[in-house]
Amino acid sequence: MEFTLDQIAALINGKVEGDGSLKVSRLDKIQEGKPGGIAFLSNEKYEQFIYETEATAVIVSENFKPARSIKCNLIRVKNAYTGFSQLLEAYSNITKMGKVGVEQPSYFDESSVQGDAGYRGAFSYVGKNCKLGNGVKIHAHSYIGDNVKIGDHTIIHPGAKICSDTVIGSHCEIHPGAVIGSDGFGFAPQEDGSYKTIPQIGNVIIEDYVSIGANATIDCATMGSTLIKKGAKIDNLVQIAHNVIVGENTVIASQTGISGSTEIGNNCVIAGQVGIVGHIKIADKTTIGAKTGISRNINESGKTLFGFVGFDIKDFLKSYSIFKNLPSLQDRIKELEKKQ
Amino acid sequence: MEFTLDQIAALINGKVEGDGSLKVSRLDKIQEGKPGGIAFLSNEKYEQFIYETEATAVIVSENFKPARSIKCNLIRVKNAYTGFSQLLEAYSNITKMGKVGVEQPSYFDESSVQGDAGYRGAFSYVGKNCKLGNGVKIHAHSYIGDNVKIGDHTIIHPGAKICSDTVIGSHCEIHPGAVIGSDGFGFAPQEDGSYKTIPQIGNVIIEDYVSIGANATIDCATMGSTLIKKGAKIDNLVQIAHNVIVGENTVIASQTGISGSTEIGNNCVIAGQVGIVGHIKIADKTTIGAKTGISRNINESGKTLFGFVGFDIKDFLKSYSIFKNLPSLQDRIKELEKKQ
Amino acid sequence: MEFTLDQIAALINGKVEGDGSLKVSRLDKIQEGKPGGIAFLSNEKYEQFIYETEATAVIVSENFKPARSIKCNLIRVKNAYTGFSQLLEAYSNITKMGKVGVEQPSYFDESSVQGDAGYRGAFSYVGKNCKLGNGVKIHAHSYIGDNVKIGDHTIIHPGAKICSDTVIGSHCEIHPGAVIGSDGFGFAPQEDGSYKTIPQIGNVIIEDYVSIGANATIDCATMGSTLIKKGAKIDNLVQIAHNVIVGENTVIASQTGISGSTEIGNNCVIAGQVGIVGHIKIADKTTIGAKTGISRNINESGKTLFGFVGFDIKDFLKSYSIFKNLPSLQDRIKELEKKQ
């Protein structure tokens, strides 16, 4: 999509210095600007790049005074960062939200309903008795099972799989390939060493403003619901087991796994590749460092945890700094022993 | 799906106390019971909830005597837990096994055959020369390559990908998004630092009663077969590399990875986020704790391993408890040295 | 596909000893050979198997002299390993590259173009303004968004998702279920504890001869490009975050995660389940052991790193060997203290 500099200046309430009829089709970093792109200059550290950039235009603040001559066009706004953010959001809305209507072939059971202004891509599948709100986008290859509810303005990206009975709130994004509501991992050991599958009849409930990453997996509850609360952000390839509760505005980075029936509090920050055992509770505002393993309740809120089995981070770093010196420590002990 | 309490009582050989014409459509936990749901009371610890539950009905054992008045309806059976389990299984069979027939559009090469009472969802793909047994369910968006064999009553969930030449036994479940038979990760280093792809021409064989989790990946063998033996249960996001063998009734939890050509014995239990190097053997009945790394053969069966490179769990915990005290240990050494 | 031994001998420039009209349809390991298969004998260690194998034929070197009688047919070539490699590659080309043409139903926006000799499977989706080169294979259920460019002879395996604006070079393989160009994980914290989504408007650029594993995820850049350079090989379930750069001929094994804006050098080898923090640089030719965590720049090229926070491997192993002996070390300190 192409826009003239004049159109962009009108959108972000700015003033063009240069040729307002020139067209741009891309947002660039100032240090990597190329013809046809528009960048911004906010941080003084980057000022050097405005004299060299090949970008067609740069958004600058009202009070910017170039030290030397500039070859690109300028759009002056009150605050360059704010102006660029507005442009970024407008651009993102146009490119991501633009699709409306139904592509064919697609499958939509006649017992299901979809609100206004929605999109369903080719090869999307919607099963029985589903209710999709207004502005819901079901991209190509998405699977929506039976009895699924999806709130207004939620986006189901290509190839995401929403299994039967799942409930998703409004303004959520389910990224490509994510699986929501697959069977929990429950098997009853039998006397002969084999396992019998325990039927998993619960569901997944995802509240409003939640994001689920690409190829992440969230299992349904054995009974009841696996629950992802409002505003939680879950990254790619994360595993959430049956009956887990993830609190409001909790952030979970890539490849972390949370075992069955564990409850994570509100406003926690959990880094990548963390593992958390089942049937425990993590207090609100807990921060957990990358690769940490957590095997017990965290009762006090606001703690930062790190290390192989989830020490307090200060304790871990103390022990760990000595771990590095174990060889010399051992030598010192030998020396002491010799002197006895 | 709705059933009357009379219908349910007939199914589980029980007797209604209350209004047998009332309908329920959901199995609830007793502590979270809502109108339209049926729960059960087996463990005495939960007795308090039967006096408060909003569930329409609760399944109780013959000899249950309420201490106070109860507002919900009851279904009395010999053993409440057994009765509920029967109901759970019946419910699960109805909701999961119910689909029969072929939805359109779907793709089925004319050289392939499918047995009786099967299901193929819209946008399912079945390539050339496939043999699908009786009662096989190929859900929407599933991909079945060429020359694939699938035994009776196996379920391929939405969007699972079964690559060419894979053999799957009967009564298996392949969960959504799982990839079976993708190319092994094999590259031959060249003199200029680049890598040449080694053709991967083997396949994957999955025996009966195996479960493969959502978005798990199982690579085909370079030559020969990657083999998942009877009754093995593999969780979401697990990686099984080329030529691996997983033994009978072995359970592998989420996000664990097993490198090429390793053989895992029968009846092992491997927790989440474990990593196992290639070309080793793990004895039968080995238990491996979460996040453990295993880099050598485990020859003796029945061991429990834990820790960064797979110690015996007792040894690990001994060292680890001291690791926590390294700072004080170091202080003690300093003190000793001063006294010399 | 079946071939006579005469046909195979012609292909690999060999000479049949036995019945050249017999047909084989499979490449076998010599120790697992079955009728209808052809194996090879190169390494003397395996010679015993040629006297027992049930394979229809075995490829042997010119100078092979059997010690006893052999029941299978032979194909003699100059070098058995080379001959078999030729056969392996031919077989792989036939089975993998064979598909040409377009299966229906498939979706291809009229603004997009595809070169000659390509393949598009049923239920494949190609959005607007895409340019697909010659010999490109888009397998069933693959998703190609808008404005995507794919170079000659690249294979997009079943169910892979290539999001809008992605650029992929020639001779690449994107394995089943991989997600390329999904949104980066970027959220700006708000005063009330909630997070606002930061629009992700960059893309992913994948150069020539790159392989991306099954169900791996590569996020688009916030702005600019996430870049996978020429010849890089990335395994199943790997996570590459926004704005990461992976160098030429770098190999990354399964379940490793690389956080945002990190730059990995050329010719690195990164084992499985490694975690690398964001905004750091890893020098060329760095080797990183399995499960290692890397939290700082690696400036010197050619190092081998291992351990929980990425020690030099020799230092780690020294400390680790003592870690195992911490209990006895503690006892020795106690003993020393008693003697004071």
From TrEMBL, chains A, B, C:
Pfam families: Hexapep, LpxD. Residues 22-89 form the UDP-3-O-[3-hydroxymyristoyl] glucosamine N-acyltransferase non-repeat region domain. One of its GO terms (cellular component) is membrane. InterPro entries: Hexapep, Hexapep_transf_CS, LpxD, Trimer_LpxA-like_sf, UDP_GlcNAc_AcTrfase_non-rep. Its EC number is 2.3.1.191. GO terms for biological process: lipid A biosynthetic process. It catalyses: a UDP-3-O-[(3R)-3-hydroxyacyl]-alpha-D-glucosamine + a (3R)-hydroxyacyl-[ACP] = a UDP-2-N,3-O-bis[(3R)-3-hydroxyacyl]-alpha-D-glucosamine + holo-[ACP] + H(+). The keyword Transcription regulation does not apply. The keyword Repeat applies. Pathway: Bacterial outer membrane biogenesis; LPS lipid A biosynthesis. Signal peptide: none annotated. SUPFAM superfamilies: Trimeric LpxA-like enzymes. One of its GO terms (molecular function) is N-acyltransferase activity. Catalyzes the N-acylation of UDP-3-O-acylglucosamine using 3-hydroxyacyl-ACP as the acyl donor. Is involved in the biosynthesis of lipid A, a phosphorylated glycolipid that anchors the lipopolysaccharide to the outer membrane of the cell. HAMAP family: LpxD. Belongs to the transferase hexapeptide repeat family. LpxD subfamily. This is UDP-3-O-acylglucosamine N-acyltransferase. It comes from Cecembia rubra. The gene is lpxD.
